[in-house]
From TrEMBL:
A molecular-function term among this protein's GO annotations: ATP hydrolysis activity
Domain ABC transporter: 2-249
Keywords (A to Z) from UniProt: ATP-binding, Nucleotide-binding
Listed PANTHER family: ABC TRANSPORTER DOMAIN-CONTAINING PROTEIN, IMPORT ATP-BINDING PROTEIN
Nucleotide-binding as UniProt keyword: yes
Protein name according to UniProt: ABC-type uncharacterized transport system, ATPase component
Source organism of this protein record: Desulfosporosinus meridiei (strain ATCC BAA-275 / DSM 13257 / KCTC 12902 / NCIMB 13706 / S10)
Length: 264
């Protein structure tokens, strides 16, 4: 369970470029809750994730994960409990290493030091089993270098790596935005499958308004560093993309700047 309280973040404080990117954000996620996040460019979506995962120090506020206050924990420490997938397919995997080696590194995160060295037959079987979920034939390519894979295959693999040891929180920052539509859909349905099977507490930023309502159990919309809409239950079930845009423009007094959000 994640709890973000009164979170504020300013970039370039004291300079002429000073930018208040998050304004007093409050957000609580229950066990297994899958929240999609939408909002225009610069709304603060990625900054929120970067503050939760410890990339940025925050001005004010408190971040709690499963009742542990992680506000001042360094990024590497938080990464043991927080799985992340970014937009760039090159970012989450080591291209010069094999699929097996990449998965082993991710898998070692959950083992104690000393047990990390070898990969057992049992581990390999688990890797194959997980790779089969992707339905991309990667289970037969364990010894292939990741650099040989397409962007979509790499992104699917990154998602497996982020979840092979069950994280307490999964953060997805437009993880399908750079993929072609067919593989993007595949990675999204895989995301849904893993999140529901493992009951993962998940935040997923998407530029796709339709996907934001289709996937997950709750949708929040951000604007100028604040959460301006929080949809769940029946209200969310009844929501359409058109009405979502209408609500956004009504509440923010701004026009949606992002054509991308309407596509796909
Ligand atoms: N590292 C940074 N340094 C300075 N300003 C930043 C940095 N990261 C983000 N910002 C600014 O903070 C605001 C929010 O950015 P971001 O969280 O990336 O938006 P989003 O992901 O919603 O598009 C933007 O105005 C952006 O320019
Ligand atoms: Mg972003």
């Amino acid at each position: 369970m994640l709890r973000v309280e009164s979170l504020s973040k300013t970039f370039s404080k004291g300079s002429t470029n000073e930018k208040l990117a998050l304004r007093d954000v409050n957000l609580s996620l229950g066990e297994g809750e899958f929240v999609t996040i939408i909002g225009g460019n610069g709304a603060g979506k990625s900054t929120l994730m970067n503050c939760i995962s410890g990339v940025y120090e925050i001005d004010n506020g408190r971040i709690t994960l499963d009742s542990t206050d992680i506000t001042f924990d360094p990024e590497y420490k938080r990464s043991r409990h927080i799985g992340r997938v970014f937009q760039d397919p090159l970012r989450g995997t080591a291209h010069d290493m094999t699929i097996e080696e990449n998965l082993s590194i991710a898998f070692a995160k959950g083992k104690s030091v000393g047990l990390q060295a070898g990969v057992s037959k049992k581990d390999i079987n688990l890797f194959k089993e997980r790779l089969q979920l992707l339905d991309l034939g990667l289970e037969n390519r364990l010894k292939h270098k990741v650099g040989l894979l397409s962007g979509g295959q790499r992104q699917a693999l990154t998602l497996l790596m982020a979840t092979i040891i069950k994280p307490r929180l999964l953060l997805l920052d437009e993880h399908t935005a750079a993929l072609d539509p067919t593989i993007a859909r595949k990675v999204l349905s895989l995301t849904r499958k893993i999140v529901s099977e493992e009951k993962l507490c998940t935040l997923m930023i998407t530029h796709n308004m339709k996907a934001s309502l289709e996937y997950g159990t709750r949708t929040i919309m951000m604007h100028e560093g604040q959460i301006m809409m929080d949809l769940q239950g029946q209200e969310r079930k009844d929501m359409t993309v058109d009405r979502l845009i209408e609500q956004f423009e009504k509440r923010s007094g701004a026009e949606l700047d992002n054509d991308r959000m309407l596509l796909g």
